From TrEMBL:
Origin superkingdom: Eukaryota
Name of this chain's protein: URB2 ribosome biosis homolog
Residues of the Nucleolar 27S pre-rRNA processing Urb2/Npa2 C-terminal domain: 1319-1513
Recorded name of the encoding gene: URB2
Leader peptide range in chain numbering: none
Pfam families noted in UniProt: Urb2
């Protein structure tokens, strides 16, 4: 047979054989073992290669389909397992260079987009060659081939091929780059490497890196390229560029080119011909045509930043600063903005500015971070070369202002940080373009502007030249400009910066600046104000600046030098005399018929300065006893007879009235400042001794009324404007917000002097401006601001709100009126009749409702009890037809008000409010709901009402409700209303919202009955009425004639009510029986309740509850019934009635049915926590009642296997298993207490079977997890005697099994964290509880091998935090509970601990991209490391020898990363404790043995240790006994 196929090679070469047959034969020959050819693999590969060569050299004509199939044939050979096996066995397969050249030529064609045919097959062939080392030799042996391939692959990727090919293409690029880098590292000829890189690879690699950095193939929605692969390729490109362009051997060439140095070293003779490497790089970078024009500028810009970074990484060291600067200046010349001054190109678009300014920012940051610019060295040695360059750059930036680009501000900030003299010649233009005249609206741009101004002000604070800076600022403000186009000078950002600066200034500089501002105002603005809008606007800007200076300077006190105080006194007098009064006189003297803009702005300026002056004057007079207030000094001069303070010294009341009349015409800053003046006046009045006199009180009330009335109309506008809380930005738009902020901020002062009408007005505004929907979170890219809603929300949640009783009361009344108006809009009867039926809806005063207590608390004539009047009235309304019906929109409106009510502290209401709100909420819960109300909305409304009623009745005034109504009456009203509503409610019985509603109702009914017991309010009477009412409902529910019309939801309501009755009455009766105090009537009531509950439960069961999942309400009721039943019928009883025996018998069958169904459905309950908890409670009670156990099966075994089934269910998530673990533990504890030793043996056998490593090999993870969880549950149960001995004797076997399981789980990809986490938890628990019982040290040592296997890298932050905590817990358990083992295995312990330490350093490093959202996880881990350091330091004797090595490990690792300061601080606090253990020889040893870079880190660490930690420690020792 072999001979038959030996001629196949002749047929393949034959011209008569068709190509279809040739391909079939070739394929058969490759896969068949019967085809015997000498060197068959090489022959077949050569045939396919020669066929393709002949085709591409035009020597052979083939169809495109045949050509593609030939490529696929070669690809199949290259990827076949057969070929791989041959190569592994040492057989040589020669690919021939011709095949590789054809592949390179095809990829070149593809990159030119000439043809895409066979592209996938060719790329796959290339991948097959490169991924097989034995075949890749053909590329690595001929370096030019890999260079051409890599170049063409990069160009192909840059042409953005079809989506389907992207992933494959980049895999090939990744392989090619890897091979080229390995060749490059072995390259001994730097000239050749540089030539290859610049000649062939520089341009395509730069373009490709730019596209990858922009997320071209990795953006959301595309997903053709993995993020990880994209990052790796970018890193490979950077390594390629660095290895080619910036080799150590080329440093001399760069120096020769850029510094004009003559090289005398003969060793570099071979480099003589490689001249001007920087010129070569720049020329290739600036070539025209290698990429699309739209990309070219962006590619060049990004490449400039990259090349400079790589240059610094390669060559920067001390002494090379000038060289690095020369490279910077040359690369900067590649940017288009560098030619703007020469007017070689037109102005750039904003997007181009953004791109290039980002690059400039990176360049300047590199200069700063590497200390390339040394001011003194530049001036002395290099004739200020760098300074002049930065000056030109500063001029360029300032002359071409780009205030809409954040990077523009950051570049200026970087220049200011380098040397303030760079920007000082253009300081005025800088201030104008970056602040005064800048139009900045975007939040990110505002933050960049704020950072620049912060650097600017801080620089001049350090130079003590702030007055000079302000002189420039004032010059810019006062220069001619279109003031209307300017934004407010002191918005929130600049204001913050200025405030921070002013706090650091000494008083002398503050006063210099203040005086300068007064001079400029007086000389340049004040004389020209009249009729000039621009000047009026300038005056407002200067006033804002003066206000900021005066408000934020450091206050004087009695310790301030007297000359400073006198100077301050003079400046205050001068300001009042020469500025404030002239401005006010200008307002008072002018008779302008029409309101003009300039006059409005002058009034704003005058009143702002008046308010500022008054506030500062008051502050100085309080804080500094040597300062004499002008307000006091000028009181005698005033024409006022009263001793009460004026708004401002020297300005009479009638003049203020004229100003008030003027400012009332518009909402503006002036009106706001006038309110502030009145508020300041109130504060000064309150500080006087006669503030309680009639005159003072009258004045205070008038001032408070004015403040409130001033903005009353503006608050009715319901503006949505936001305000940044800066006085200078108050305008007509933001005035309502500023006014409301002023009132709310000073409510504690104002509220006592407002009349009742004003208080009600305040309350209505508060209610109207509250947000009725969930507030949206402020984005990180949005500036925090103040709105009406935020202000109102803050007062509502303030702890002071309930303390302001008048406002709180008025607000409660407003809420009541709001609810009443909605309820009345749905009234279906005459309002007068509704007033008779529900009078509390129409009461305007809560106190009127409280008067009912006295009337209803008395017994009327002829035995009639008025206490039941309200209840009977409500009950008759519910039974007949409630007179109010609401539709969907009305219900949503009232729900919004209920949400507001829910935020109030209802449990602390006074009695009148409590009663009123109880009746209001009870009335709302009984209303009829129209057809437009959905079932979900209805249930939400009812749940809200009953939750609020429950919250109310938990309060201190709960008893007051029971003075006007009996609990039994409330119970009957609620259930009657609900029973009626449930019949109309279109909702399924197993709907989650309905079940939640039942829980809310049950909780409230239980609360009512608990109140009866706690307050001992006629227990037999109330419980008797409740029981009779429930008996009536129960009778109706099980009546045969109503079977066809049964209300199933009503039955559930009855079941809940009966259950709660049993739940409350059962324990109470049981407790009284123990003291022989239980009334016989209550025992009978409980017995009836048990019988009725059992009947209703069995009715629900008969109606089909057994056919589907049991709801939690059913299981809870069954548990309560069982508990009450057991309490009613103890095991040793002597006398029971026939009826009770029969019922108990039927209950027994019922309990067994529920037990069986629960066991079968237990896995389905796992994800419903309430259902599962209820099931566990029932099973526990059932297990503890042996009389109920079935005769056939063991209840212990059945329950245990059911628990195993839950834990082994693959559909139940791991998190759910962790949540239900405590509930399982409670049941398991009871089972183990009662179970026999044989039962325990069976449990241990199942656990050990589950922990067998074969389960992991079979991928039966659930069996493993089940066994681990059961072991944890077992450990949480108290074990004693034989059971404890059995468990701890099996402990070594468990630890060994855990070690094997963990090893297998960690070898899987990805790591099975769902298994590793529970294993670590169990291991920690075993080590803690086995402190005295685990005797073999080997089994403790196994824990180290487990910890060393657990991965701590490549985890998501939440996963990392969980695994880290568990590893730490195991390590801590060994340290605390097994010190002897730890002492013998300290190296293993430290290895495990160092893994934790290094992982925290890795996760806590500062990353190039991404925010700090996950930093909290790392911080928590760092705290654990610090705590572990403290525990290690506490065991000084054991660890002293190892302390220097721990420090060495720390500094070696910390040198590799830049940590976040918070993480670094925590780790340093820990390592300081280890340094405490180091003696002086240890420190000397570290200084000598550490590597140079690490040594510097240690030196810095040790200096900080001595300065901060050791000094503090020694200081504490001095005071220690």
């Amino acid at each position: 047979m072999a001979a038959v196929y030996s001629g196949i090679s002749f047929k393949l070469k034959s011209k008569t054989t068709s190509w279809e047959d040739k391909l079939k034969l070739a394929h058969f020959a490759w896969i068949s073992h019967q085809c015997v050819l000498p060197n068959k693999e090489q022959v077949l590969l050569d045939w396919a290669r020669q066929s393709l060569i002949a085709f591409y050299k035009k020597k052979l004509e083939l169809k495109e389909d045949i050509v593609e199939r030939l490529w696929i044939y070669i690809d199949n050979i290259l990827h076949s397992k057969k070929l791989q096996d041959l190569l592994k066995n040492g057989k040589t397969i020669n690919l021939q260079i011709s095949l590789v050249k054809i592949i390179n030529e095809r990829i070149a064609e593809f990159s030119l987009l000439e043809s895409q045919r066979s592209m996938c097959a060719v790329l796959s062939c290339c991948q097959g060659i490169l991924s097989t080392p034995a075949l890749a030799v053909i590329y690595t042996a001929r370096q030019e081939l890999i260079v051409v391939l890599l170049s063409q692959l990069c160009w192909l990727a840059c042409r953005q091929p079809e989506r389907a090919m992207v992933a494959q293409l980049f895999e090939v690029i990744h392989l090619a780059l890897g091979h080229y880098l390995s060749i490059q590292q072995q390259q001994v000829n730097p000239r050749r490497a540089f030539g290859e890189m610049t000649g062939h690879l520089l341009q395509p690699c730069l373009v490709l890196r730019h596209l990858l950095s922009g997320g071209m193939w990795t953006q959301a929605g595309q997903g053709q390229l993995r993020q990880g692969l994209s990052r790796e390729i970018r890193s490979q490109i950077e390594a390629l560029l660095q290895g080619g362009a910036f080799q150590p051997e080329l440093l001399s060439s760069y120096k020769e080119e850029l510094l004009d140095q003559q090289q005398g070293d003969t060793k570099i003779g071979t480099m003589k011909n490689l001249l001007a490497p920087m010129d070569t790089l720049i020329a290739r970078l600036l070539d025209v045509g290698y990429c699309e024009p739209s990309l070219r500028s962006a590619v060049i810009a990004n490449s400039v930043a990259l090349l400079y970074k790589l240059f610094l990484d390669s060559y920067f060291k001390e002494g090379n600063q000038l060289l690095c600067f020369r490279v910077l200046s040359r690369l900067f010349g590649c940017l288009r903005i560098s030619h703007l001054q020469e007017e070689q190109i037109k102005a750039l678009a904003t997007s181009d500015w953004t791109t290039e300014l980002l690059v400039v920012e990176q360049l300047l940051n590199s200069v700063a971070s590497n200390n390339i610019y040394n001011i003194a060295a530049d001036r002395i040695r290099h004739e200020e070369a760098q300074f002049h360059f930065y000056r030109r750059l500063a001029e360029l930036l300032i002359n071409h202002s780009q205030a809409s680009v954040p990077a523009w501000f950051r570049c200026l900030k970087a220049l200011m940080s380098l040397n303030h003299l760079i920007l000082e010649p253009d300081l005025d233009d800088l201030l104008a373009s970056a602040w005064i005249d800048a139009e900045v609206t975007d939040f990110r741009t505002k933050k960049a502007q704020e950072a620049l101004l912060h650097t600017l002000f801080q620089t001049y604070v350090k130079l003590r030249q702030v007055p000079r800076l302000f002189e420039e600022i004032l010059g810019v403000i006062c220069r001619p400009a279109a003031e209307e186009l300017r934004q407010p000078v002191l918005a929130s950002g600049p204001s913050r910066v200025l405030c921070e600066c002013l706090l650091e200034l000494p008083p002398g500089q503050i006063l210099d600046t203040w005086s300068l501002l007064l001079e400029k105002f007086q000389s340049l603005v004040l004389p020209y104000l009249q009729g000039d809008v621009d000047m009026a606007l300038k005056s407002l800007s200067l006033s804002s600046l003066l206000h900021c200076i005066m408000f934020n300077m450091r206050s004087l006190d009695s310790s301030t030098p007297l000359p400073i105080i006198r100077r301050m006194q003079c400046t205050m007098e001068r300001m009042l005399r020469e500025l404030v009064r002239p401005l006010l006189d200008l307002l008072l003297d002018l008779q302008v018929p029409e309101l003009e803009l300039w006059l409005q702005k002058v009034s704003d300026s005058a009143l702002l300065l008046s308010y500022t002056w008054a506030q500062v004057d008051a502050m100085l007079s309080i804080n500094c006893s040597q300062y004499h207030s002008l307000s006091v000094a000028l009181t005698d001069v005033a024409t006022e007879i009263s001793n009460l303070p004026l708004l401002l010294p020297g300005v009479e009341t009638h003049q203020w009235k004229k100003i008030e009349k003027f400012t009332a015409q518009f909402d503006s800053l002036g009106r706001y400042c006038l309110e502030q003046l009145y508020l300041q006046k109130m504060k000064r009045t309150l500080m006087q001794t006669n503030f309680q006199s009639e005159e003072a009180l009258r004045t205070l009330r008038c001032d408070a009324a004015y403040i409130l009335d001033s903005g009353r109309e503006s608050l009715n506008q319901r503006t949505r404007a936001s305000w940044d809380a800066q006085v200078g930005t108050v305008s007509a738009l933001t005035y309502p917000v500023a006014h409301w902020h002023l009132i709310v901020s000073n409510l504690t002062i104002l509220i006592s002097y407002l009349c009742p009408d004003d208080v009600r007005s305040l309350a209505s505004v508060l209610l109207r401006t509250l947000p009725m929907s969930k507030a949206q979170e402020v984005s990180a890219d949005e500036e925090p601001s103040i709105t009406l809603e935020k202000i109102s929300n803050s007062i509502l949640h303030s702890p002071l709100f309930p303390e302001m009783q008048s406002l709180h009361s008025a607000f409660l009344m407003c809420l009541t009126e709001g609810c009443t108006s909605i309820l009345c809009s749905g009234a279906q009867c005459d309002p007068s009749l509704l007033n008779q039926q529900l009078p509390w809806l129409f009461e305007k005063d809560h106190m009127m409702v409280a008067l009912w207590e006295n009337r209803f608390a008395k017994v009327g004539p002829e035995g009639v009890e008025p206490k039941g009047e309200i209840a009977q009235n409500l009950l008759s309304l519910v039974k007949s037809d409630f007179p109010i019906q609401l539709e969907g929109e009305q219900l949503e409106s009232i729900l919004g008000l209920l949400e507001v009510i829910s935020t109030l502290q209802l449990d602390s209401l006074l009695t009148p409010y409590h009663v009123h709100y109880f009746l209001l909420l009870l009335s709302m819960a009984m209303i009829k709901l129209g057809s437009s109300c959905s079932s979900s909305l209805t249930l939400k409304f009812l749940m809200t009402c009953y939750r609020l009623l429950g919250y109310l009745q938990r309060g201190k005034s709960a008893r007051s409700v029971l003075k006007i109504m009996y609990v039994s009456d409330i119970f009957e009203i609620i259930l009657t209303s609900l029973f009626k509503a449930s019949s109309r409610l279109p909702v399924n019985m197993d709907d989650p919202s309905w079940l939640e509603f039942l829980q809310v109702i049950g909780a409230f009914l239980e609360q009512l009955m608990q109140m009866l017991i706690q307050m001992k309010l006629s227990l037999v009477l109330n419980f008797g009425k409740i029981s009779r009412f429930l008996h009536k409902l129960y009778t109706e529910a099980i009546a045969g004639k109503q079977v066809e019309n049964q209300n199933c939801r009503g039955q559930q309501l009855i079941l809940v009510s009966l259950t709660k009755l049993c739940q409350v009455l059962g324990p109470f009766v049981k407790e009284r029986k123990q003291h022989h105090e239980a009334p016989e009537a209550l025992c009978e009531l409980l017995q009836k309740a048990v019988l009725h509950t059992g009947a209703v439960l069995q009715l629900c069961w008969a109606q089909g509850a057994q056919d589907h999942h049991l709801p939690s309400i059913f299981i809870s009721s069954a548990s309560t019934l069982l508990e009450a039943d057991v309490g009613q019928h103890p095991r040793h009883r002597t006398e029971t009635s026939q009826m009770t025996d029969e019922m108990t018998c039927s209950h027994t069958t019922f309990y067994q049915s529920v037990y069986s169904q629960l066991l079968s459905e237990l896995p389905a309950f796992a994800e419903d926590s309430q259902c599962f908890q209820a099931a566990m409670r029932f099973l526990t009670l059932f297990f503890l009642t042996p009389e109920l156990h079935p005769k056939k099966d063991s209840v212990f075994t059945s329950m245990f296997h059911s628990m195993r089934k839950v834990l082994a269910d693959p559909t139940i998530p791991v998190q759910v298993i962790e949540d239900i673990e405590p509930h399982l533990g409670a049941l398991f504890t009871q089972m183990l207490e009662v179970g026999t030793t044989e039962d325990f043996r069976m449990v241990m056998q199942c656990i050990l079977q589950g922990l067998d490593v074969s389960n992991m090999w079979k991928a039966d993870l659930q069996a493993v997890l089940s066994a681990v969880t059961l072991t944890k549950v077992l450990l949480s149960s108290p074990l004693s005697g034989e059971k404890a001995r059995l468990f701890w004797s099996a402990c070594p076997q468990i630890v060994t099994a855990l070690t094997l399981q963990n090893r297998e789980a960690c070898q899987e990809q990805p790591v099975l964290l769902a298994v590793v986490g529970p294993i670590l938890d169990l291991l920690a628990a075993l080590l803690r509880q086995g402190e005295e019982t685990i005797s073999n040290p080997h089994h403790v040592s196994l824990a180290f091998s487990i910890l060393l296997t657990v991965p701590l890298d490549h985890l998501k932050p939440p996963e990392y935090g969980r695994i880290f905590l568990r590893v730490h817990n195991v390590l801590f358990s060994i340290l605390q509970c097994h010190p002897k083992v730890m002492l013998k295995a300290i190296p293993s312990f430290l290895n495990c601990f160092n893994r934790l330490l290094f992982s925290v350093m890795h996760e806590g490093r500062q990353k190039d991209k991404g925010g700090t959202d996950d930093l909290s996880v790392v911080l928590e881990c760092a705290r654990l490391v610090q705590r572990m350091y403290s525990h290690i330091a506490a065991r000084a004797e054991e660890f002293t020898v190892f302390s220097p090595f721990m420090v060495a490990h720390y500094v070696t690792e910390v040198q590799k990363v830049t940590l976040y300061p918070t993480v670094k601080g925590l780790l340093q606090e820990g390592i300081y404790l280890i340094l405490d253990l180091c003696i002086e020889p240890d420190v000397q040893f570290l200084r000598v043995s550490l590597q140079p870079g690490v040594r510097d880190i240690f030196k810095e660490l040790y200096n900080d240790y001595v300065k901060y930690h050791k000094a503090k420690h020694e200081g504490e020792k001095r005071y220690t006994a």
